[in-house]
Backbone:
């Protein structure tokens, strides 16, 4: 599957950000502005490397050496460029040792720094790579920045400081953490919107799916990546998860555990595909949780995995919808037409992989194999892989996009699910939210510039 996705992109979309596998031409979305930055190449590199596809890796490296230029007049998503490009380049560097990847990651990081020039230090959602001018998405609550976006920079930025010795990156992300720690949180929950001019929350929406998701993931992973010395991150994670469990996690009438969304004072009984990553997160965070609750969180991870598997199993294609409801007898199914699509997303398979690593229960491989077969049957086209618009239709139409994250995440997690545990062991590697592995930093007595010495 990886060979087919990569070779098709190589043939029809090379250098473009993504591929239209039916039209057999390049594709790009607004998150990359009007640029041709080869997002698929950068996103896929570490997957190619891990799978032993070294010729393909070399092709990608050559393109990056010769063509990857960040001095373009393009307005890009700070978050997406961080997790896909900086994460992808850093992972490629750590896996292969090739200096060009580190060099490009640092060049790009410099271009993102102007996004932090706001009254609060909470970065803009978008920045122009050439001019450094930043702004927020027009649709976001009253000019707010988004929790999952400004809260998903920590892993990459700490590694940038570690590799360059430049404290600026570390200081930027620690400033965000300190600012959030001082703010009051309604019900202990973090709203998804924060205004970078005033430093006040926007609408009181809270989600572990889109707009919130990876903020929580990076609190846990900051702790893991620090060799468990960043206890402040762990405490913040534990407190957040406790509030989430109290206010957002419920059991349906049919016995399915789900994570709802908090909106304007009430719980919406709807879960997004993106929130399905949380099963893996709960399992990953089980060890080290307070009050001997490790077993509880592993169980919670298993329940979320089961619910998300049901969302796949209750469709015609055995592929999960974008969002699914839990009310009035209908459970784990999409109700609205615009929530019935599957765009090659990885989150459910990601949770299967973590659950497999921590339990070795064979059902997770079984479920992953079902998903792999369904993707290969319904999403494979002659020019690559495409998302489908309705997972409940036996005659689905394609969206004609091969997302870069399909190669970065979905196929990597599937491959790891069927590999032995000593390939990318979790003691040594922490995966960013785009599935790019970064090594645990065994800093011991070394402190990052501008940081406090670790308290053991």
Residues:
């Amino acid at each position: 599957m990886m060979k087919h996705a990569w070779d098709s992109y190589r043939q029809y979309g090379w250098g473009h950000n993504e591929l239209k596998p039916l039209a057999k031409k390049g594709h790009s979305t607004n998150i990359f502005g009007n640029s041709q930055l080869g997002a698929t190449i950068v996103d896929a590199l570490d997957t190619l490397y891990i799978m032993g596809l070294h010729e393909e890796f070399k092709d990608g490296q050559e393109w990056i050496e010769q063509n990857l230029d960040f001095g373009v007049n393009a307005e890009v998503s700070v978050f997406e460029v961080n997790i896909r490009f900086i994460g992808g380049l850093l992972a490629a560097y750590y896996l292969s040792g090739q200096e060009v990847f580190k060099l490009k990651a640092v060049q790009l990081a410099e271009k993102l720094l102007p996004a932090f020039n706001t009254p609060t230090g909470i970065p803009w959602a978008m920045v122009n790579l050439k001019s450094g001018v930043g702004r927020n998405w027009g649709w976001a609550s009253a000019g707010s920045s988004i929790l999952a976006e400004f809260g998903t920079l920590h892993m990459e930025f700490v590694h940038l400081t570690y590799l360059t010795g430049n404290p600026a990156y570390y200081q930027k992300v620690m400033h965000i953490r300190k600012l959030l720690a001082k703010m009051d949180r309604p019900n202990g929950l973090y709203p998804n919107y924060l205004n970078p001019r005033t430093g006040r929350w926007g609408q009181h929406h809270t989600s572990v799916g889109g707009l919130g998701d990876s903020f929580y993931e990076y609190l846990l992973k900051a702790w893991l990546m620090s060799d468990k010395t960043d206890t402040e991150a762990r405490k913040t994670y534990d407190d957040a998860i406790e509030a989430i469990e109290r206010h957002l996690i419920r059991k349906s009438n049919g016995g399915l555990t789900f994570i709802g969304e908090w909106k304007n004072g009430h719980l919406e009984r709807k879960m997004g595909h993106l929130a399905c990553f949380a099963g893996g997160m709960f399992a990953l965070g089980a060890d080290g949780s307070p009050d001997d609750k490790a077993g509880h969180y592993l169980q919670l991870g298993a329940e979320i995995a089961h619910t998300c598997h049901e969302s796949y199993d209750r469709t015609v294609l055995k592929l999960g919808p974008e969002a699914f409801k839990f009310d009035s007898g209908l459970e784990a199914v999409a109700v609205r037409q615009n929530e019935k699509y599957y765009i090659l997303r990885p989150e459910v398979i990601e949770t299967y992989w973590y659950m497999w690593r921590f339990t070795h229960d064979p059902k997770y491989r079984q479920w992953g194999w079902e998903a792999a077969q369904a993707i290969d049957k319904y999403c494979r086209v002659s020019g690559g892989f495409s998302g489908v618009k309705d997972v409940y239709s036996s005659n689905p139409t394609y969206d004609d996009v091969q997302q870069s994250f399909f190669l970065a995440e979905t196929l990597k997690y599937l491959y790891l699910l069927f590999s032995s545990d000593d390939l990318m062991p979790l003691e040594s590697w922490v995966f960013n939210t785009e599935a790019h592995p970064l090594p645990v930093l065994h800093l011991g007595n070394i402190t990052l510039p501008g940081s406090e010495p670790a308290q053991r």
About this structure: Residues 104 and 342 are 32 Å apart (CA to CA). The two ends are 45 Å apart (CA to CA).
